Amino acid sequence: MIRPQSVLTPRPAGLYCEPGDFYIDPVRPVDRAVITHGHADHARPGHGAVAATAPTLAIMAARYGADFAGSAQPLAYGEVWSRDGVEVSLAPAGHVLGSAQVVVRYRGLTLVVSGDYKRRADPTCAPFEPVPCDVFVTEATFGLPVFRHPPATEEVAKLLACVDQFPERTCLVGAYALGKAQRVITLLRAAGWERPIPIHGALARLNELYEDFGVALGPLAPAAAAATKDLAGAIVLAPPSALATPWARRFPDPVSAFASGWMRVRARARQRAVELPLIISDHADWDELTATITELSPGEVWITHGREEALARWCALEGIPARPLALVGYDEEED
Ligand SMILES: [Zn+2]
Ligand SMILES: [Zn+2]
């Protein structure tokens, strides 16, 4: 049987499929790319032909302009695209809207590239679909046993408790524009927060795109247009980078919050002067990573990026051969 290493090979530009002549999430411009999801480190402009889900293509067009690639081919989940005997299809990854695992089948071998993924419930995207495979190529952003994300509902309850406690202040929540902002909004709605949510202008376009794809976010309003009296007791969303800028000073005595899996690390919260760290992640935590590998029971695990060593060691102890690929160019942040 053909060796999996000759189907997918790590190269400086990214993970390359030689028999199909395409890259997955290349970090440099290439002729042909399959893109797992719209985060900027995975979805870059300037490729020749790009295949991805329709929402991912729409996200790329929103960020880079309609000419982000030479050509764009939308692939629905489960739709098979064949090239030189290689069958490629996409399966939901549960990470952000449109996010996909790439399933590559060639001469009886199945390799699944997870892209970024999570297993938690998230109404803003299709849930992760386990695909039986010979090789599971996984991310490991939170691949250390210390990373165990609490239920997101508990974190949002902390946010609502903060509003109750400080009705005269504004809760200013840093959330990345693609995925995290919409997840926080839907978590707030599910917790009964029905008031209009003032948002920073940099979040508007992707919020609209989510709504276009059927994700209801409820009433949102530009934070810039809000009257100061309406901002007391409000929950305002902004990109994390805006929290430390003059933009944030308009709010009455703001409580600075930040929604990220990295808020587990106290030093990071302190570094950013975050008063209310919210551990809400769109990546699998340690338990999700290991449970997914146990569930799939693949012949081999390859690890693309993140904390590779601990997960590789865990696999070895489970008797699963594991191989860190040490792919470079992917950020550990979520946008
Ligand atoms: Zn991502
Ligand atoms: Zn990533």
What features would you describe in this structure?
It is a single chain. The chain has 335 residues and is of the alpha/beta class. Helices cover 23% and strands 25% of the residues. It is built from eight helices and 19 strands. The protein has helices at residues 54-64, 152-165, 180-190, 204-212, 228-231, 266-271, 286-296, 308-317; strands at 9-11, 14-17, 22-24, 32-34, 47-52, 69-74, 81-83, 86-92, 100-106, 109-113, 135-140, 171-174, 197-199, 220-222, 235-238, 255-259, 276-278, 300-306, 322-324. The longest helix has 14 residues, at 152-165. The radius of gyration is 20 Å and the shape is globular. The chain binds zinc ion (ZN) (2 copies). The site of one zinc ion has 6 residues, from loops.
Summarize this structure as a short list of keywords or feature phrases.
globular, 19 strands, about 325 residues, alpha/beta, single chain, binds zinc ion, seven-stranded mixed beta sheet, six-stranded mixed beta sheet
